Amino acid sequence: MADTKREIERKYESDDAALPDLTRVPGVASVRGRGVTHLDATYHDTADQRLAASSVTLRRRTGGADAGWHLKFPVAPGVRDEIRAPLSDTLPDELAALVRSRVRDRELGPVVRLRSDRDVRHLLDDQDRLLAEVSVDTVHAERLTGGGGEARWTEIEVELADDGDPAFLDKVEKRLRKAGVRPSSSSSKLARALAETEPAPAAGSSAHRPPPAHPATAPEAAPGTSTAPPGRHPVTAGDHVLAYVRAQRDALVELDPAVRQDVPDAVHRMRVATRRLRSTFRSFRAVLDRADTDPVAADLKWLAAELGKDRDQEVLAERLTQALGRLPADQVTGPVAERLAAWSEARHKGAHHELVAILDSRRHLALLDTLDALLEGPPLRKKAAARPDKVLAKAVAKDFRKLAGLVEHALELPPGTERDTALHEARKKTKRTRYAAETAVPALGGPAEEAVRDMKALQGLLGDHQDSVMARRTLRELAAVAHAAGESDFTYGVLHAGEAHRARVAEEALPEAWSSISRAFPF
Q: What is the pLDDT of residues 358-371, one digit of tens each?
């Protein structure tokens, strides 16, 4: 069974391996030596260093208190999540699954061996509590592929104690810098080992280079912050569209481990990335040839639907649980909370199991490969080379016109199933317009940001209405099950009435909200 530990540390190097007096660090009452530990770690990667390119490390280590397999994912500079599994001769399946989105069908094998003598000291406060662990590591690196080079160095590592204040590391660093110690130029031992043991290129050939790295973090790609093609600032319309596509591709890859580990909100963020990609291909057909993107969009639609099985249930469970909690005690009859919890847990377990199988499927891995290939050789059309302002603004305006038609059609319909369906279609078009505007933010600035805000507000209103539609459907199903079991269905009816009221409120607010948005929309 693997477990996860948040690791917050900083690395330093010095011409002198000696440490300064660390009792002079504010808050440190004593420094306790813990002796020297001998560590032997073998790092694994693909032949083209796919994990290293993503700043991910996978190692098998003996020695020390945490011998075993360690998989580290970057979270932020100096912060990594380390997932540990017991020592074994072969890579545990649970860790292999967590790197599958990066590795795909490539074989993992030993690439570097690091043997370290670690001299450890604990920094303690006046109550003998651990503040941080400081180690001086004497490292011998040996490359296990490509001709095998070697390197040796000494480095200092400061790791914050569990639940410690990261600001304490600033105090330690201030003391180290005064003593002539400087931050390491490498982000990790592995990065330094790969750089210093890389074989010299043969005469007439180019040195090996790993594939372009994905960004170090894996959040939902923020609107307007997508990265440009490697090494180039976005200039053309095609640059901006591809930058947005690249950011969403990276999100799919990097969120994969979090989805597998059932991290809260991970499924939602991955689903958003699939929708952003699909919407981008549809909105910017003047930039990217649909003959190439339509098949990809079909696979993205399939993936979003699979992700939705878990996400939709998660949203409904949270909504209904909160609504139940707001009811007066005299309106709750029967084991409603227990039945709702059982429904949620059963649905979630089944959906999550199916979703992990989807992530392991050939179709999903092929989709990731296809996205990589599309970014490496994009099917650009003539307008991709044009200035971004006109091309991107035109695409946003086109999406908005289609949205306007859907909203106005829905407003003309009487309340009921047909209007519910029409409002749901308008909601989907709102998302597409929002994502197109997000793509345009780096090029168009303020007007695109305003469009994103407008669409986000409209999406929230339409989303609450659609969630109410789905909640009422679920409540009717749960009420039928409760009734068949001889339980009271009164509370389900109360909740149903509450959801119907929320839908009416959203519908009544829509005309004024839409009038305000449509009058001021900047495109």
A: 999 999 999 999 99
